[in-house]
Design brief:
The structure holds 2 protein chains of 2 kinds. Chain A is mainly α. Chain A has helices spanning 4-9, 14-34, 42-53, 56-89, 91-104, 113-120, 124-148, 152-160, 165-203, 208-217, 221-249. Chain B is mainly alpha-helical. The chains are: A mainly alpha, B mainly alpha.
């Protein structure tokens, strides 16, 4: 016989909440044991959350960061998905881009920030560009894998019915590769956040990453932890919301996806 | 052998084309040298720097952090992955925990790590470990879960204890998956260590880039970037090469 607590703890959403609670308790104990200024107790940090996130400055900064992230992600979507799909359907195109992508893969994208700032100035363009670069790679890769695995018979039927080259990519290849493309989007979304935060930490002008380090410099330790909580919450909510969207878009697919790891 | 050479040549030609285009654009004066130095200038400078003591010391600092973080991530990742795959309690605790922590951009934790562990090696090693652990852990977990249970049953029937089974059967059988996770973790680690050094450090390759950027020495900005990318590329392709040797006898690795 199952106990009632067992049933309750098995409800969806409860185990993650419990582990969140566990993490916070571990933090509380650690801060009490360490007793250093740099690790304030979780209760004090949580109490400081509303005061900081409803400040106009924070809202504007984080909002601007998210806007740049959306723009970079959108541009990458327009560029990388078609490229990946075409690579998956044409051996010559794949043969050309694959070696290049292998070489670009281990380059730290956020580290390009100082170089890109030389070219595009210190404004928003550079920040959007660096996010675009970071997101493009996983998107191209997964779109490529998805398009490669498309059932040939579908493509042949479309060709037999006279579907043109471009129509074939968008009407046959894209829908059947969609589960894999969306997995790429999920990894890309995580990448976008990582690149956004780290490039803002490197360039230090504005945005969420900059707020984080400003608080560190001004020894406002609680503010540092509040910003970490805010950024983590953004990461968690984006991932969760995208996962829901993905389930709706590909309810017909048998493709099961476990946790995706962003490859910064 | 001829086929191998041909495939190498085929994968090098796009890179050669891009480098040649870049080089000739610089030579023709289409781009200003201060904005984008020629590849030949970058390589020459890298070669020159590789013969200096100070540059090698910076590389050494980066390598210490990289190796330290990666070692911690590997040991913890494989250990926790095996635990989650072989014990039900382990899975019930670890799975939701991973679900909560995995989507967090680990780099955002860096200021907290600095506050707790200081500006030196420890905070960077911790950040590298925090970022590299997830691919290794998840790969171990999935690999260990998909181990053919008949292997475990036969070992158990032959008198192997449940604990010995974990190390004698499950761990070796999940090696292909673990190596894939390790390779991803390694590239992530090399990226993260560089970013951490750019954000706050007094040495290491990332610091060299920031220092060069402050004085607008463009060639010197590209050198550490090329160096860290080359390290990541060499390590990752070295592992891909070693994989065939390490995984001899694994049926799924044949012809891969």
């Amino acid at each position: 016989m199952k106990s009632t607590t067992g049933n309750w703890a098995a409800l969806p959403g409860v185990p993650p909440l419990l582990s969140l609670l566990g993490l916070m308790m571990a933090w509380q104990v650690a801060s009490q044991l360490a007793a250093i200024e740099g690790l304030p107790p979780v209760t004090r940090v949580l109490a400081a959350v509303p005061g900081i996130i409803f400040q106009k400055e924070t809202l504007v900064d984080v909002g601007a960061s998210l806007q740049r992230m959306a723009l970079g992600f959108g541009l990458a979507l327009l560029f990388a998905v078609p490229l990946g799909l075409v690579m998956g359907r044409s051996r010559a195109v794949a043969g050309f881009f694959n070696p290049l992508l292998t070489v670009i893969y281990p380059v730290p994208k956020a580290a390009l920030m100082p170089v890109i700032m030389l070219w595009a100035g210190v404004g928003d363009t550079s920040k959007v560009l660096v996010i675009f670069l970071g997101v493009s790679l996983p998107l191209v890769y997964h779109s490529y894998q998805g398009a490669r695995a498309v059932d040939e018979k579908l493509v042949w039927s479309a060709m037999a019915m006279g579907t043109g080259n471009i129509a074939r990519i968008f009407r046959v290849v894209l829908p059947s590769a969609l589960p894999e493309v969306l997995l790429g989007c999920r990894v890309g979304l995580a990448m976008a956040l990582i690149v956004m935060v780290s490039s803002e930490m490197i360039a230090r002008q504005s945005g969420a990453g900059n707020l984080l380090f400003n608080s560190l410099d001004m020894a406002q330790y609680e503010a540092v932890y509040v910003m970490i909580i805010v950024i983590s919450a953004v990461g968690f909510v984006l991932d969760f919301a995208f996962e829901k969207l993905r389930e709706r878009l590909t309810f017909w697919s048998t493709h099961r996806i476990e946790l995706a790891v962003a490859e910064s | 052998m001829g086929r191998l050479l041909k495939s190498i040549a085929l994968s090098l030609y796009p890179i050669a084309i891009v480098l040649a285009a870049w080089e000739s654009a610089c030579a023709a004066g289409l781009v200003r040298k201060v904005l984008l130095p020629a590849p030949s200038a970058i390589i020459a400078r890298l070669w020159e720097l590789l013969q200096t003591q100070t540059f090698l010391e910076h590389v050494g600092q980066t390598m210490i952090r990289l190796a330290g973080g990666l070692a911690i991530a590997t040991v913890l990742g494989i250990g926790l992955g095996l635990l989650a795959a072989t014990s039900r309690t382990g899975a019930r605790i670890l799975e939701p925990l991973i679900r909560v922590i995995a989507p967090i951009p680990k780099i955002a934790l860096y200021p907290a790590l600095i506050l707790v562990l200081g500006f030196d090696h420890a905070s960077k090693i911790a950040l590298v470990a925090a970022d590299a652990i997830f691919p290794i852990l998840l790969a171990t977990y999935h690999g260990a879960q998909s181990v053919d249970s008949r292997l475990v049953w036969s070992a158990r029937a032959a008198g192997t204890s449940a604990r010995a089974c974990v190390f004698k059967i499950i761990l070796p059988a999940s090696m292909p998956s673990i190596l894939t996770g390790f390779r991803i973790g390694m590239v992530i680690a090399s990226v993260v260590v560089f970013l951490a050094e750019m954000i706050s450090s007094a040495d290491g390759l990332g610091h060299l880039l920031v220092r060069a950027a402050r004085s607008f020495r463009t060639v010197d900005m590209f050198v550490p970037l090329v160096m860290i990318s080359a390290l990541g590329l060499i390590a990752s392709s070295g592992l891909a090469f070693a994989r065939r040797k390490l995984l001899q006898g694994f049926p799924e690795e044949r012809g891969a």
